[in-house]
């Protein structure tokens, strides 16, 4: 008598695919959440690089012309990260934001540690700081006020789902 393995193959982890069209929808939906909440930010602060496009879109949708960015390094590769996120210079002077309502924008709250570092850096200097993300993971240490989608899956963003044209560490990419 022959036996065959009837076990189902393990399914691949779920992936979220964000297209540029869906990104436009996400920006408008997040902006509407901010409006519906009655929050009127004085400045939109992008966490670079992932939050730059979102911050620009939110700035236009909310008619906020005061945009700034902070560079934070945490991910060094796919599923590879530093022990803690590090803000890289130049950082906006926290004192220049005194009394402002700040909307912090990023692409995803995965661990949430990047959002936490940025929020904690500015929170004592601003009137109010709120966060907006396209995606939130269930294990994040910070709960953004504005979220477009929640997921456990890996996210393919349109700006990072294909390799760069240039590898700054070694010339042209192939």
From TrEMBL:
<dbReference type="InterPro" id="IPR000836">
    <property type="entry name" value="PRTase_dom"/>
</dbReference>
<dbReference type="InterPro" id="IPR029057">
    <property type="entry name" value="PRTase-like"/>
</dbReference>
<dbReference type="Pfam" id="PF00156">
    <property type="entry name" value="Pribosyltran"/>
</dbReference>
<keyword id="KW-0328">Glycosyltransferase</keyword>
<dbReference type="GO" id="GO:0000310">
    <property type="term" value="F:xanthine phosphoribosyltransferase activity"/>
</dbReference>
<protein>
    <submittedName>
        <fullName>Xanthine-guanine phosphoribosyltransferase</fullName>
        <ecNumber>2.4.2.22</ecNumber>
    </submittedName>
</protein>
<keyword id="KW-0808">Transferase</keyword>
């Amino acid at each position: 008598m022959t036996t065959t393995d009837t076990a189902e193959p393990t399914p691949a982890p779920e992936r979220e695919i964000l297209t540029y069209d869906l990104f436009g929808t996400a920006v408008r939906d997040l902006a509407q959440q901010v409006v519906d909440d009655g929050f009127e930010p004085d400045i939109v602060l992008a966490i670079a690089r992932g939050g730059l496009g979102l911050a620009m879109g939110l700035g236009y949708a909310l008619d906020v012309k005061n945009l700034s960015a902070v560079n934070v390094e945490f991910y060094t590769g796919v599923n590879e990260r530093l022990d803690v996120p590090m803000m890289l210079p130049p950082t906006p002077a926290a004192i220049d934001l005194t009394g402002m309502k700040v909307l912090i924008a990023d692409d995803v709250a995965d661990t949430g540690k990047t959002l936490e570092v940025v929020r904690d850096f500015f929170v004592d200097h601003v009137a109010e700081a709120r966060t907006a993300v396209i995606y939130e993971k269930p294990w994040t240490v910070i709960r953004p006020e504005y979220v477009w989608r929640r997921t456990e899956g890996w996210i393919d963003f349109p700006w990072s789902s294909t390799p760069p044209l240039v590898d700054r560490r070694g010339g042209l990419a192939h």
